[in-house]
UniProtKB/TrEMBL annotation:
InterPro entries: Solute-binding_3/MltF_N, TAT_signal
Keyword entries, A-Z: Signal
PROSITE patterns in the cross-refs: PROKAR_LIPOPROTEIN, TAT
Protein name per its UniProtKB record: Transporter substrate-binding domain-containing protein
Source species of the chain: Streptomyces actinomycinicus
Length: 339
């Protein structure tokens, strides 16, 4: 997401089961990082959504090495034969993107799964490790990790130290009850007269408060509510105390999947760029600057896009709304004034 605040908003969405699973797996290593248990696939396949505890539809994809792309890798990485992927999901994880799975040991989620897909195109064995948000960047800086896949937003500030290969839109989303007829089409004036909940200290709160101020100048109201937890917010939504909940879109997608089929089922009422009106925010694979990895990773992503595996990965995690048409190396990022 655009800032670490947005990531904290995702962290608030943890279920008790995910927290317990993380602790039971012993992933909160003293050094702030840990090796991650992973499952293996047969040659030429990658299974996404495995042990996802309902966050995804398990899907097996055929993915083989593309020699023309793997030839772009730095020689040292080719010789080593592994892609060292770090995910900044300690201590608790942030479903559906990165967390400990239903077996209480495997690091799963959309982000590590996508790292495994990219590694397959590059002809490399994925070597996953889990770290705190801060230590993820330390690992990239030190060379302990080649690349971070952890919902990292491309920003101009981060470009001073890192190269990016974009692979997903950075979106915030509105969650409403399934029976609601309200939808957001990108115009803040749609929110006039509504009561909307948002998490404190998040990027989406910043966006919502800006819209509230604009409506107030027009003599219109937008009531903004804050609740102490995701559970409390969802109870307010099902109880009719709020009309909608604005949150990080992956968290919205996760809760929609969890509530499907229940009397209180919810749906998406629309998304909006996490970078605001002037720029489409982008989530990107993050490598050390000038490491020579961003270009082959971007080419691997584009291969997955062109061959359909990318769309199937997003669909498995209910994140199709965040698809990009093409991976770019160091595209325009969140400006320095809002990094």
């Amino acid at each position: 997401m655009p800032t670490q605040f947005s990531r904290r908003g995702l962290l608030r969405g943890l279920t008790a089961l995910t927290v317990a699973a993380s602790l039971a797996a012993g992933l909160t290593a003293c050094g702030g990082d840990s090796d991650a248990a992973v499952t293996t696939d047969s040659a030429g396949t990658v299974t996404v959504g495995r042990v996802s505890n309902g966050a995804a539809r398990e899907t097996t994809l055929k993915v083989s090495e593309v020699k023309s792309i793997s030839a772009e890798l730095p020689a040292s990485v080719r010789r080593r034969g592994t892609l060292k992927i770090v995910v900044g999901a300690l201590p608790d994880g942030f479903p559906p993107l990165a967390y400990v799975g239903g077996d209480q040991k495997t690091l799963t989620g959309a982000e590590p799964d996508f790292g495994r897909l990219v590694a397959a195109v590059l002809g490399l064995e994925p070597e996953l490790s889990n770290a705190t948000w801060e230590n993820m960047f330390v690992g990239i800086d030190s060379g302990r990790a080649d690349v971070g896949f952890a919902n990292i937003t491309d920003t101009e500030e981060r470009k001073k130290k890192y190269d990016f290969a974009s692979y997903r839109k950075d979106e915030v989303g509105f969650e409403v009850l399934k029976k609601s007829t309200w939808n957001f089409d990108g115009d803040y004036r749609d929110l006039a007269g509504l009561t909307v909940a948002v998490d404190n200290g998040t990027n989406q709160e910043k966006i919502l408060l800006e819209w509230q101020a604009k409506l107030r100048k027009q003599g219109k109201t937008l009531t903004v509510k804050h609740y102490p937890s995701k559970n409390a917010t969802h109870l307010a939504l099902t109880g009719g105390k709020i009309d909608a909940y604005l949150a990080a879109n992956p968290g919205v997608a996760y809760h929609i999947a969890q509530s499907a089929g229940s009397p209180n089922a919810t749906r998406s009422a629309g998304t909006y760029s996490g970078a605001g009106a002037s720029l489409q925010g982008l989530i990107a694979a993050t490598t050390k600057k000038d490491s020579g990895l961003a270009e082959p990773i971007a080419d691997a992503v584009n291969h997955l896009i062109e061959n359909g595996q990318y769309a199937k990965w997003l669909a498995a995690y209910h994140l199709s709304a965040e698809a990009v048409a093409k991976s770019q190396v160091n595209p325009p990022g969140l400006p320095l004034t809002n990094s």
